Amino acid sequence: MSGVRVMVVDDHPMWRQGVARDLAEAGHQVVAVCGEGRQAIRVVAAARPDVVVLDLQLPDISGVEVIRGLRAARPEVRVLMLSASGEQQGVLDAVKAGATGYLLKSAALAEFLEAVRRTAAGEPVFTPGLAGLVLGEYRRLAAAGQGAAAGTADAAPRLTDRETEVLRLVAKGMSYRQIAERLGLSHRTVQNHVQNTLGKLQLHNRVELTRYAIERGLDD
Amino acid sequence: MTHVPAPGAFEVPLWRAVAVFRVASLAYVCVVLIRDADRYAHPFAAGALVLVMAVWTSVTAVGYANPARRGWPLLLADLGIVVAILVATPWVMGRPALAAGLPTLPVAWLSGPVLAWAVSGGRRRGTIAALVLGATDLSTRGVVTPSAFNGAILMLLAGVVVGHVARLTVTAGERLQRAIELEAATRERERLARDIHDSVLQVLALVQRRGARLDGEAGELARLAGEQEAALRALISGAGPVPAGAPDVPEDLRALLGRYASATVSLSVPATPVSLPPAVARELAAAAGAALDNAARHGGGRAWVLVEDEGSAVTVSIRDEGPGFPPGRLDQAAAQGRLGVAQAIRGRLADLGGTARISSTPDAGTEVELTVPRRQA
């Protein structure tokens, strides 16, 4: 595979050009560059990127809205979020909306290029910070779901013990290779565990949204 | 819109209420004068006395309206003049009128200073003024009728109650003001955070990124930019300012740990606040800080902090990739009487009713896990 088709969405012109140049130098194909979320949603179908590198804080619409719009217009697209501030709730919401990767803008260039490659290959890109957020979200859902919807179909999603163990190690800064070594698992298995933690959260989010839409629809 | 009231602004309605009371009670004094004047010993002197009361009512209304004049001179003068009027009253009315059970000339008007003292200084001052005026009133009458005694008791109660309510109002007002100031500070911080995100953070991240492959001085500048970027990010992503002097308000552990985040220390936290009693939160953060210091000293490289809120307990894990140490070395050190950082951390956690688990393998770094149980409130 020679290069990934990438679209860069960022409102900061210097940053946008810098990222586009870095990607081009690394042999990727920058198919579109946008400064606004609505514009990105409009052009994504025509530009046909594999990966969208998305700044989480855009001037016009929220990161969650951009991700929903992008995925509606081009379901197979993968979203790698970048954030300058590491704003926590925003990152978590974006992941629940379907982003599969997250990096701070301060990440090194090699780290960024590796993240683009892995996002294109369908692997989740977790920072330790994101793993901490996801762990926290599962605990929050479990605490909120206790008593209320226990045992019903839309009960809070749960992590297996192994998934929790893996996610904790990611949050403590260990690489997949180190985790695989410590737990005596294959690299691929560790990756699958991480992917499952995201998948369950995104599925739960979609179920919640659908239920909300149905309730609203029936009420209206 | 935030409007921060001036200090003392919460007393203004109370002082207005006192002025209104004085005017209304003066009106009643006039009614009593017109009804009973023909039975007084010196009706014209009574008229003059009511005139003095009217003048004093206006003086106090204007005087107390200004916070700068609400001090002791006016309060003492207020009490003194009303005492003087009370002392003059028996002569003006004459013994027969008093003995016949007519109300004394100032009737309820004499409570004015009691209310003023109560509003200015709370229950205690209200009580003192009520006792002075009550004693003067009862002693100058010569005969103590049950209704006169009731009047004195009611005045005393008014002094206590108004004083109490005045204090409550002022305290509530001050709390409101602190809350408004806190809100304003939080808004300002959010505004700053947005601005910093839009400009400074982006540029610093860019400088660090593009400069990272340069050698020498430029590379060093890029590294410095990266450090500042991490420090600034930690600063603006922290929770709001902690109100000073609030020992029972739970603190967010995330905000306390935020100050340790840097280019080399990564902080992983939940998206929702991790609230702990302030003393516990500070001790836990200090223990984590000690573990990080140790990691920086011996580990030398990067460190990672993970905060987990399990509901019944809060766990903070600190990991570094330093040289580590062989198992058993900690116990060995303790046995030799060398109480190092590890023991200090364990001590802090034991004081909180929690545990500290420290594990290390040579060449694979050190992991410290601090767990504190959450007491049910």
TrEMBL record, chain A:
Phosphoprotein is among the record's keywords: yes
Protein name: RNA polymerase sigma factor, sigma-70 family
Domain HTH luxR-type residue range list: 152-217
Any one Pfam family match given in the protein's UniProt record, by short name: Response_reg
Domain Response regulatory residue range list: 5-120
Listed GO biological process terms: phosphorelay signal transduction system; regulation of DNA-templated transcription
InterPro entries reported in the protein's UniProt record: CheY-like_superfamily, NreC/VraR/RcsB-like_REC, Sig_transdc_resp-reg_C-effctor, Sig_transdc_resp-reg_receiver, Tscrpt_reg_LuxR_C, WalR-like
Classification via Gene3D superfamilies: 3.40.50.2300
Modified residues (4-aspartylphosphate): 55
GO molecular function terms listed in the Swiss-Prot or TrEMBL record: DNA binding
Keywords for the protein's UniProt record, in alphabetical order: DNA-binding, Phosphoprotein
Record PANTHER family: TRANSCRIPTIONAL REGULATORY PROTEIN DESR, TWO-COMPONENT RESPONSE REGULATOR
From TrEMBL, chain B:
Name assigned to this protein: Signal transduction histidine kinase
Residue ranges constituting the DUF5931 domain according to the UniProt record: 10-169
Annotated Pfam families: DUF5931, HATPase_c
Biological process terms in GO annotation: phosphorelay signal transduction system
Transmembrane parts of this sequence: 14-34, 46-65, 71-92, 99-119, 148-170
Protein species of origin: Micromonospora phaseoli
Keyword Hydrolase (UniProt): no
Taxonomy, superkingdom: Bacteria
